[in-house]
Every structure is written in structure tokens, then in C-alpha cells.
UniProtKB/TrEMBL annotation:
Superkingdom classification of source: Bacteria
Natural source organism: Paracoccus cavernae
UniProt domain Co-chaperone DjlA N-terminal: residue ranges: 26-141
InterPro entries: DjlA_N, TerB-like
Protein name in the entry: TerB family tellurite resistance protein
Length: 153
């Protein structure tokens, strides 16, 4: 399953084809995992947040969400550099969905209740690579902070 998805994501023939909904969601999940691992502190809070995001995005039960996250962890570990990975997502996923991905990324970045410079810069990088403006990324971040009840000065 994982090898098939990796080949669908990164093969030359896949450039002009759309990912299936499931493939796209696993690719997004892998991006969430990549962000969570950015500061070398990939802990329970981040895994739980990713599971919650996946459950809400795909209407999954907790076990299926955790299983999808585990698949995403394997995909992320084998995916090429972030630039290539995000370019493929950008080419295959509509802008409105990519903006929602940035919101999910901010949610994972704040999962442990604190702002990490590594995660912050990584979300900003991914925003640009996915074609989401700084303004839209900032709006997504503010929405996440409000939803999480975090008052950042």
C-alpha cells in the first residue's frame, strides 16, 4: 500500500493525474507528520492532534485515524525533500483545500501549547510552497489560536 502510494505520488507519469481522495488525504497527513517532526519533539500531543484532524477531515473513527497517521508516518519517512513533496500536493489539490491544510498545520504546531520557531518557520515555508499567501496563512493561524483558546501577544 505505502509503496504504491509513493509511486503514485512521485512517479513521472503521475504528474498530470489527480490523486484519489484517499491518496490526497494520506499525502496531507504525511505533511502534518513532517511538520510535527520538524522540531525533533514528535510527541503524544502532536500525534493526538493529527489523529483528531484526520478524523474530522475524513469522518474517521479514532482507530482509523490513528491507522492513517501511522501510514502517513511511513510515507513521510520515505518521501523526498519537502519542496518536491509540497509541489506534488500543490499540483494535485485545489487551493481551498490547501488553505485548510495550512490551518491543520498550525493546529499541529500548537498541539503542545507552545510555539516552536522550527515549526513556525516550517509552516511558513509550506504555505509558500503550497501557494497559500502569508495573509491567508496568518488568518488560518489566528483562527487556530482562537479555536484553541490561546491568547498570543
Amino acid at each position: 500500500m505505502f509503496r504504491n502510494l509513493l509511486s503514485r505520488l512521485f512517479s513521472e507519469e503521475a504528474t498530470d493525474t489527480k490523486l484519489s481522495t484517499q491518496d490526497a488525504e494520506v499525502a496531507i497527513a504525511a505533511l502534518l507528520v513532517r511538520l510535527a517532526r520538524a522540531d525533533d519533539h514528535y510527541g503524544k500531543a502532536e500525534k493526538t492532534r493529527i489523529d483528531l484532524i484526520l478524523a474530522n477531515r475524513r469522518n474517521l473513527d479514532p482507530e482509523d485515524a490513528a491507522e492513517q497517521r501511522a501510514a502517513a508516518e511511513m510515507i513521510e519517512a520515505e518521501a523526498p525533500d519537502t519542496v518536491r513533496f509540497t509541489r506534488l500536493i500543490k499540483d494535485r489539490i485545489p487551493l481551498d483545500v490547501r488553505t485548510g491544510v495550512i490551518e491543520a498545520l498550525w493546529s499541529v504546531a500548537y498541539a503542545d501549547g507552545r510555539r516552536s520557531a522550527h515549526e513556525d518557520s516550517f509552516v511558513r515555508l509550506i504555505s509558500g510552497l503550497l501557494g497559500v499567501t502569508d495573509v491567508d496563512s496568518g488568518i488560518a493561524r489566528q483562527k487556530v489560536l482562537k479555536d484553541l483558546g490561546i491568547n498570543e501577544k
